[in-house]
Write a structure and sequence with these properties.
Strand order of the largest sheet of chain A: 1-3-2
CATH class of chain B: Mainly Beta
Number of strands of chain B: 18
Number of helices of chain A: 3
Shape of chain A: globular
Strand content of chain B: 35-45%
Strand content of chain A: 5-15%
Oligomer: heterodimer
Largest interface: A-B, 21 and 21 residues
CATH topology of chain B: Jelly Rolls
Structural class of chain A: alpha+beta
Number of strands of chain A: 3
Largest sheet of chain B: 12 strands, antiparallel
Shape of chain B: globular
Helix content of chain B: 10-25%
Radius of gyration of chain B: 19 Å
Chain lengths: 80, 286
């Protein structure tokens, strides 16, 4: 798996939106807020960053050089 | 005496009646999800995205009614050899609590390689497939859940939970030899009922922080008085999550097929036998 790490959830979703548009998901075609919007959705990391699974994304050179192959998720209440 | 006898006979007729839908037997559900009709009509049940692997119509979506799922229209839409994914599992209760997954990578399967499944496939071992009905209000006090599934590994079929707190939920977990009710409203407790096999029709009910019961495949319920914190009230529960324990710090993904979920904002113990007779006559679970 490949991930891009973002400082904010908004920035990660912006990249996920970009890929969703590229893939032609219904949310972007119908323009009515209905349907699939993203290929993947960001998850919070243990250090309060946001990891986006970009394994199947069409990445540019800058993004390719920034990917990581793992991250540590934010633990849940049972994991404290 | 005459009235009591008539009432008893009427109840027996209801238990044995053919063609009566689940929501006619036990009306006023808070939410109801299935691929079959639960209303007696032909409701919209599912919205499906097809994956043609880059071919014509890739990622197109379409709504289907219960009769269109069973007639082959759904399979025809997805196409030979392709997979179909569920974007929305429509709520048949009339309350509009549709369960949605906007992220393609997290959508459960309904068609695999051109073959329609009898339930939605959640592969919790390799993915995070879930459906969530957001912005749910009014789930408080006594709560009942019916869950119909086929398990491949331990996981949660449904959770009445909180979108921002990992410590508030009332969930059903299907384990190897037990069906488990897991309420938590500050403190996590569990109550389990022994069950064999992978087919599960699980009923869970809580009437307060010290009263939770669970019963699998029509067996008598097991009850605990362990305290899970506070009675569910107000905005403690604000979503119905399918295929996962919680979405805040997500964990407990289900691995298997989920056929049907019924949620009531009331104690449905009195209707349990009739509801489960209806469900079992359709799915032949036990």
């Amino acid at each position: 798996m490949l991930y891009l790490i973002y400082a904010s959830k908004e920035a990660a979703i912006e990249r996920a939106d970009e890929e969703g548009k590229e893939l032609g998901f219904d949310y972007w075609i119908e323009d009515n807020g209905i349907g699939t919007r993203w290929l993947t959705y960001p998850a919070e990391t243990i250090d309060y960053m946001w990891a986006l699974d970009v394994t199947d994304y069409d990445l540019d050179e800058s993004e390719e050089s920034s990917t990581v192959d793992h991250y540590t998720p934010l633990p849940g209440p049972d994991d404290d | 005496m005459h009235i009591s006898l008539d009432s008893a006979l009427g109840r027996q007729r209801r238990l044995n009646s053919v063609g009566e839908s689940v929501l006619q037997i036990a009306p006023n559900a808070a939410a109801a999800y299935s691929l079959r009709s639960l209303t007696g009509g032909d409701p919209k049940v599912v919205r499906v995205r097809r994956d043609t692997d880059g071919g014509a119509g890739d990622n197109d979506e379409q709504d289907f009614t219960a009769s269109e799922v069973s007639s082959g229209a759904l399979v025809a839409f997805v196409g030979s050899g392709n997979d179909g994914f569920v974007e929305t599992w429509y709520d048949q209760s009339g309350n509009g609590k549709d369960a949605v997954q906007e992220t393609a990578g997290n959508q459960p399967l309904i068609v695999i390689s051109g073959t329609v499944l009898t339930g939605l496939d959640f592969d919790g071992s390799t993915s995070s497939r879930t459906l969530v009905a957001p912005s749910v209000t009014g789930l408080a006090g006594s709560l009942s859940i019916f869950s119909v599934s086929v398990r491949d590994a331990t996981g949660n079929t449904v959770s009445l939970s909180n979108s921002s707190s990992g410590g508030r939920y009332f969930a059903i977990q299907e384990g190897g030899s037990t069906s488990v009710a897991n309420p938590r409203n500050t403190a996590s407790i569990t109550v389990s009922d022994s069950v064999s096999g992978v087919n599960r029709l699980t009923f869970a009910v809580t009437t307060g922080a010290t009263s939770t019961s669970v019963g699998a495949n029509s067996s008598a319920v097991t009850t605990t008085t362990d305290d899970y914190g506070d009675d569910f009230s107000g905005s403690h529960i604000n979503q119905i999550a399918i295929g996962v324990l919680r979405t805040a710090s997500p964990t407990g993904y289900f691995n298997g097929r989920i056929n049907e979920i019924l949620v009531y904002n009331s104690d449905q113990t009195d209707n349990r036998a009739a509801v489960e007779t209806n469900i079992n006559s359709h799915y032949s679970l036990f």
